[in-house]
Amino acid sequence: MPKYLSKSEADTARIAAEICSGIGPGSLVLFTGGLGAGKTAFVRGALKAYGNPSHVSSPTFALVNDYGGSPHLYHFDLYRITDLDDLYSTGFFDYLGPDSILFVEWSERIQDFADAFGGVRIITVDIARTDDPDGREITVKGGEFGC
């Protein structure tokens, strides 16, 4: 299971670009990590890796940001999701596809529903704070990483 140490937000974005170079369409990238851990910073770096110039912001109020591109990139915030019906009501399953990558913040809210995702490649990215206020430990497992 690959682990990375980030010392800044820019470092997190650089690490994301490195990690995402191995993540292809048809993938679901599930984030775990507390408020302010760096999940959105990670998505910023991921979009750069895919050559997508979109402005990245947390989809907290919109639930999903559609960044387009090829592959088609979506960014979900599932903080307010409490059950499978809530997840269905977001249209989440309509976004899953062979030409898209979904980045999902607060994936802890949907762990119990993983069986509903079918044959999608799932990559889990845990971002944890370190003793350094700007430091983060990023742990990646699943998907094409063979972890």
E-strand count: 7
- Tell me the CATH topology: Rossmann fold
Assess the beta-strand content as a share of residues. 25-35%
Termini separation comes to 5 Å
Major sheet: arrangement of strands:
1-7-6-2-5-4-3
The number of domains is 1
- The CATH architecture is 3-Layer(aba) Sandwich
Radius of gyration: 14 Å
Q: Which term fits the overall shape?
A: globular
Mean pLDDT: 87
CATH class: Alpha Beta
Low-pLDDT runs of 5+ residues are: none
Helix segment count? Answer: 4
The computed structural class is alpha/beta
Q: Secondary-structure element order, as H and E?
A: EHEHEEHHEEE
Helix content: 10-25%
Kindly report the name of the CATH homologous superfamily. Answer: P-loop containing nucleotide triphosphate hydrolases
Biggest sheet character: 7 strands, mixed
How would you briefly describe this protein structure?
The chain is an alpha/beta fold and 147 residues long. The chain is built from 4 helices and 7 strands, in the order βαβαββααβββ.
Keywords:
22% helix; 147 residues; Rossmann fold; alpha/beta; single chain
